[in-house]
């Protein structure tokens, strides 16, 4: 994977030819964005007991639609939800989903518990929540995630770019950058760039892709679901098809290559009638394919397919070199005078609870590691009791890094729900802590844990 980076670095020093605009590869990328709490709680979003979204419905409907046609593709991000859904599947269903992953029809992006925030979340906690999800994907599917996908967090940090690079990701897709920076990048075709944060290592590089719309919804109110009325579909009119073709052609003015990515979806979209939506997109594919005068070759795709094709263009010297970036895409300003900076400090007490929750996790983990090294027999005997509570604690720690949790942008009732999670997970882990850590070390470490707990109360 990292081979790509060396290829890119080599290309930066070379003057290359302008691209051939005769043919556009249009990557149609169906996706959904599922917040782990925002206007409604995690449980409500999962079960669909709200007018906004139903994650269980999305995963049920989309997988059924994927089975019907091997050309269809779908990308999914939030392992906090996926893991719940997975635990409820039959063996037969699990085998079929594994086949979708092997076929490349179902692609995992990011694959942390959540799509984390980048301004208020601490780096320890970001690594934790990513590790939790990535390990699940690797263990269950033997799948190595290669793509970052942060379409909703409120600004993007060089630290996150560095972390994703060190996680082995080849590319990273996002949307929300300062509107003036965005406008400048449109003019200079810099919406794709090579991000090289200033870190201790010279080898932290990642290909970054800023979406053309500066937000992740489909164009022309082209909504796919009940969550985004008014809805229109590709079936509606031939006029819409011509408008869409022109819009796709215009994208080549913003990017260096002839690879164009159009992601189709939004918050909790694809909850209903997934098969019909795929049929609608197939209509678009068939229409554009039949009208060669547009010079567009459309197909279902995924971000990693897109990245691979893009690197192919770099290798074939069909583009100009990418520009370099070293600093942050912070603070986020979407329109004049609208600075998304209040969330850095809002709900300060809640932020402190989350930070201490993460510290407590690190403290417990260090003591566990020490036990494993010094008293392996005792570790194996009692860790089973501890493991379930620790897993739950790690999962909650992941949820808290969500870009509507630690940021403080969720509704009050949802934030109260997060606080309840903190209280319950802490209580549960302390029950076994008394059995395990205190007994093992004769209370040597109790004082350390007590101090972190006092901070949380
Ligand atoms: Zn979101």
- Beta-strand content bin: 5-15%
* Strand order within the widest beta sheet: 4-5-7-6-10
Between the first and last Cα atoms, what is the distance in angstroms? 45 Å
Sketch the topology as an H/E string, one letter per element.
HEHHEHHEHEHEHEEHEHEHEHHHH
Q: So, CATH architecture of the largest domain?
A: Alpha-Beta Barrel
Summed up:
With 457 residues, this protein is of the alpha/beta class.
Description:
With 457 residues, the chain is an alpha/beta fold. It has two domains: 3-110 and 145-325, Glycoside hydrolase 38, N terminal domain (7-stranded beta/alpha barrel, Alpha-Beta Barrel), CATH 3.20.110; 346-456, Substrate Binding Domain Of Dnak, Chain:A, Domain 2. The chain has helices spanning 3-12, 42-47, 55-68, 79-87, 91-103, 123-141, 158-166, 179-188, 238-251, 274-290, 303-315, 348-374, 376-400, 412-441, 446-456, and strands at 24-30, 74-76, 106-108, 147-150, 171-174, 192-195, 206-210, 259-264, 296-300, 323-325. The strands form three sheets. The protein has a five-stranded mixed sheet with strand order 4-5-7-6-10, with helices on both faces. It has a three-stranded parallel sheet with strand order 8-1-9, sandwiched between helices. Strand 4, helix 7 and strand 5 form a beta-alpha-beta unit. Helix 12 (348-374) runs antiparallel to helix 13 (376-400), helix 12 packs parallel to helix 14 (412-441) and helix 12 packs antiparallel against helix 15 (446-456). The longest helix has 30 residues, at 412-441. The model is unreliable at 6-21 (pLDDT under 50). Bound molecules: zinc ion. Zinc ion binds at residues 33, 35, 152, 403.
